[in-house]
Amino acid sequence: MDILEKLSLAGLVPIIKVDHAEDAVPLCKAILAGGLPVAEITFRTAAAAEAIALVKKNIPECLLGAGTVLTVDQVKQAVEAGAAYILSPGFNPKVVGYCVENSIPIIPGCSSPGEVEAALEFGLNLVKIFPAESLGGVKFLKALSGPYVNMYYAPTGGINENNMLDYLALPRVKAVGGSWMVPSDAVKAKEWGAITQATKRAVKAMLGLKLQHIGINNENASEASAGAKLLSTIMDLPIAESTGAFMVGDQFELCKGKKPGRLGHIAVSTNDISRAKWHLEYMGFAFDEPLLNAEGKMNAVYMKDEICGFAVHLLQK
Ligand code: 3PG
Asked: Ligand 1 center to residue 101 CA distance, Å?
């Protein structure tokens, strides 16, 4: 799996600045505890390289990027310390050239179509858009997405809990980054719990997991039909019949037989099914083979284990 794919599944990249290298380990542990095994440690302080080395050594599962990399020398320091990829705020051809020549994943900052084209010239397919909000935010990204069909974006700068979903809803945006999950006050005060909470909130909002419907297994179509009528009466919802089930509103699926699950199934919808699956796998849950739609995209995927007799599947919103 390449960096683009990993970052895209993670969806969020917390951007970190530490004055003391030793703070980076509890800080990244706090981010991981919030459900995100990803971090960007910026060369905005002299502690960056040491901080990267410490995180790499102590939390090897963290997908670690080096940010605010402005020179080739910093690229070398970052790679030696163990960074898996490099980010820069602007498009520096020397830095990009060095990374490309040495097969070091680089996500350069771009703020104009010209810079996106320069990145394409170097064979890149993922750039950071910085400073995203000041550049025009979602509108700017929508406009950029027209001409460059092979380019993907990781915007940062002014992104937070309130606007991140607007960015993530754009098909060409693979991930968003920002410092809002790691407020510098909390880092200074070593309030790791607050960082875990902020990360958790962001992951939760990104995934948007929601109970979509409950599927109930039945012996046969007439039992399903009888149940559907009762639920329809109680809830004052219409019944729609399909080959395999009666849907009552969009909340109850009365199956005309035994679908997965001893008793039935629970469908949980999400903003992005690939991401939700990845995050739940990170939490330790296992999944069956995904169910694909006509275009070959994952549309639903069942979890391996039932919960109280119910199979659980994710569903793309
Ligand atoms: C960056 O390095 O990409 C930005 O500083 C992040 O911007 P933010 O602090 O507004 O999230």
From this structure: 27
pLDDT of residue 1: 74
Q: What is the dihedral angle through the alpha carbons of 84, 49, 42, 59, rounded to the nearest 10 degrees?
A: 50
Query: What are the φ and ψ backbone dihedral angles of 157, each rounded to 5 degrees?
Result: 100, 95
Percent over 70 (pLDDT), the chain: 100
The pLDDT assigned to 184 comes to: 87
From 6, 128, 174, 277, the catalytic residue: 128
Res 281 pLDDT > 90: yes
Q: Are 63 and 6 in contact (CB under 8 A)?
A: yes
Would the CB of 15 count as within 6 Å of ligand 1?
A: yes
Find, among 205, 102, 211, 115, the residue nearest to 160 by Cα: 205
Mutating to test ligand 1, I would choose from 7, 13, 15 the residue with most ligand atoms within 8 A of its C-beta, which is 15
Instruction: Output the pLDDT for position 41.
Output: 98
**With respect to CATH, is domain 210-316 assigned 3.40.190.120?**
no
Residue with tokens 């490309």: 100
Mind listing the pLDDT tens digit for each residue in 146-193? Answer: 999 989 999 999 999 999 999 999 999 999 999 999 998 999 999 999
| CATH 3.10.180.10-classified regions of the chain | 210-316
List the residue whose alpha carbon is closest to atom 7 of ligand 1.
157
Task: State whether the beta carbon of 167 lies less than 6 angstroms from ligand 1.
Answer: no
Q: For the chain, where do the domains classified as CATH 3.20.20.70 start and end?
A: 3-207
Beta bridge partners of 277: none
Distance from the CA of 104 to the center of ligand 1, in angstroms?
A: 22
Q: Which superfamily does 3-207 belong to?
A: Aldolase class I (3.20.20.70)
Residue 40 catalytic?
Answer: yes
pTM above 0.90, yes or no: yes
